[in-house]
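Render this sequence as a predicted structure.
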Amino acid sequence: GAILDVVYNHTANVDIFEDIEPNYYHFMDADGTPRTSFGGGRLGTTHYMSKRVLVDSIKYLVETYKVDGFRFDMMGDHDAASIEEAYKAARALNPNLIMLGEGWRTYAGDENMPTKPADQDWMKHTDTVA
């Protein structure tokens, strides 16, 4: 089977999403500056449409290309709820699908918006994602 290495933790260019809806698709500092990772914006997966980018693209890859799994680069940069939603949606299409990722404690979501990151601490308490 095919396992794809996916990199949602930083986008190629902040401006791509900023042209669609300014100050929305990325995690932001309090002053509205996009938080970046390796030169690209950190996809703000706690924002509804940003989560849709993650979940819907995972579903598309499974449905269209029959992908058997995903390995997430810096998965700890995302919130656990979004990763879990993507996993469940993908498993509905492929019951044998696996999902794993780097669980570093690197979450840097929006300021003043507490959430559970998809890091190694969360992975200790889930049987779905490694």
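Summary. Residues 3-8+47-122 form one domain. The chain has four helices and five strands.
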